[in-house]
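FIELD: query
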Amino acid sequence: MIDEATLRAALAHPLDAADLALPGVRYEGKVRDNYTLADGRRVLVTTDRISAFDRVIGTLPLKGQVLSELAVFWFERTRHLAPNHLIAAPDPNVMIAHECVPLPVEVVVRAYLTGVTSTSVWTAYSRGDRVFCGHALPDGLRKNDPLPAAIVTPSTKAAKGGHDVSISADELVASGVISRADLDAVSAMALALFADGVKHCAANGLMLVDTKYEFGRLPASLGGGLVVMDEMHTPDSSRFWFAASYAERHARGEEPESLDKEYVRRWLAAQGFTGDGAVPAMPDAVRVEAARRYVDAYERITGRPFVADLRAPLPRIRAALQSITDNQ
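FIELD: result
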């Protein structure tokens, strides 16, 4: 377990942006700052920014290190199930990957009736919907119940600042944004990855409740195949519950203990924020507690201690990427 002093020390130098002056085209996502290089590689720098309700709401100490290192762990573990874009990880916050053409959808896999966002399966179910993204749901379920089986619920990818929209596979294909063959292929990969994630997490006392995957297509020079991109099974992209307390808490009608950014979502919702209007400022105590949960998830999933790098992040990252600057 990481100590609070380490997390509070990291508050002093958050990685809120990664302007590295690399010789490539820069793109800033909600959490990652990306550079497309002329040689067909992409540099992904995972910042400490956190997003919720499709808005960037601040930073959490060491969050970027946790997410990047955990994504590398999963990418290396699951290559036999689905190819991915990872080439190397020269720094705790950095991945170097193949540049891909991203598919214009997020592939979400859900195994429980839960969530607080407008696109969640529980939001739809609680208002009376019994078909969600093309999947029929039985009557009589309670919040946080398991679904009859894991379901793939794709969503559109909104522009930065916009809101994703959950949609059925048939509607997505009919809209023309993705072919049936590509959607079927990535859905099969997503279900295989999710099943492996569920099994691995269960062995470590966690429940993988739901998750989203990003997919892209490699360039023709590398075969043009579909690969997993960006991240996998991190506290940003996934929901994790503690297995030991789930049944008892669920029987009492309490929310499960979580190790993901649901803690932050619930705090924001308690302040009256669900995506619109001014973002409330997170107190340091909330930021530290959220970061502790991210680190706890990393250690439980990987089975190894998290080693925090408290050096100023930008100089460290620039040094790790010096060879790219020198060779361009």
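FIELD: remark
The chain has one domain: 4-327.
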